[in-house]
Amino acid sequence: MFILVVQFVSVYMERIAGKGVGLDVFFKLFYYAAGRISITALPVSILAAGLITFGNMGEHYELASIKSAGISLFRLMRPAIIFSLFVMGFSFWASFYVIPQANLKFFSLLYDVSRKKPDLVLQPGHFYRDIDGYVIRVSDKNENSGNLLDVLIYDHSDNRGNTNIILADSGKAEMYSDGAVLRMRLYSGTRHEEYPPEAGKRNTRPYGRTYFDSLYYAFYLEGFDLSRTDEKQFKHEIILPLEQLRLAVDSIRIRRQSRIKKYTMQVARNGLVDTLFTQYGQDTVNMAGYLEPYELDGLSLIDCLDNEKMSDYLEGMTSELGSVDSYLDFVKTETREYLKTYRKYRYEYYNRFAMPINCLLFMLLGVSLGAIIRKGGIGAPALVSVILFMVFYVLISQGKKMSKEGVIDPFIGAWLPVMVFLPLAAYVTYQATTDSKLLDESSWAMARDRISLAWRNLFQKNKA
Predict the structure, then answer these.
(1) Which segments of 60-135 does DSSP mark as H helices, in order?
(2) C-alpha gyration radius of the chain
């Protein structure tokens, strides 16, 4: 659990580092991330537990003694399977209700932390720009006394550019009002200020220079504190309880179908062709002043237009086609976004049911492989657990990615790990209950000897 949480939080470390948040915020992030990751950690934990337990029993010949007493391996596995069913039930409950709340807490807190400005740290030789309306640079800093040397301040608070510049030989900065205000005391400096032009005299720009022995500046540090956002503003598929997620999937599907119907009707309306311009007939027609009455005898109206009116008609038609083309581009983009959102919500909905099933499958895998490998401790079980977890994690990642990209259906993407591990668990369980020598060293040695013998016999025949 700890390894998975550290790996998960490290992905977002760039948004957390340098923000000056306390340990309490870090612990909250780890706590909420643990709730989110628990659904993934449970199957792997069960796998390792089954491997270690039954591997130890096999290594110390306890399984052989139990079988000799007439107790089958499947009967011995029964308590572990019942326990995995309880864990699976807990996993369903957590997946439906607990994990969405943990996701909401984690991502809302992460959003607020990422919006928080970094701690106020004036590095010598660097321009500090995080205070709104000001740019500060110091040439050097005495770490013991906190004195700043050769201070330069650009005051942009009036939004007129570099019209107010302060130069000082030295200074000192202190925080007040619980870090909400930075007061800077400057010594032996000059203030250069360019004033706005006088009324009616745009070409004149008054300029003032002020020398000072000491000057006090106050900077109000807005955005440096951690302010919390209302959690109701967050809308995402991973924070919705199961029932709300199901309603959201149905709502997106209905909206998408409604939009497609609307697009189809709009394109059909804009794409209609007036058949009077193309069909042949004998009727007398008048086109809103463009045409005098004509007797159409085997001619279309296009044939009746002169060159100027034909040019106007073609220009209007081209403009209409351009509008339809732009509208189709808009429709394609919006439909793609609707479809992408629909896939994401469907995948999340099916994943809520698929992930807990892995608890039962991994218990069967762990118990059966432990009985076959017959190695306890941390060595072999840990290696097998890591390999199977890597496969499990890759299947989850690729299933999610391909579902969102539309390569496979979200239902298949969510259930992909179950589809892969279900036949594997059934095969390994069958091998374990029938006393398979699948991973027995002597069986592998005998198979190796048979292959070597067959190879030598084949080589001798070819040589003869």
Answers:
(1) 62-68, 73-93, 99-115
(2) 37
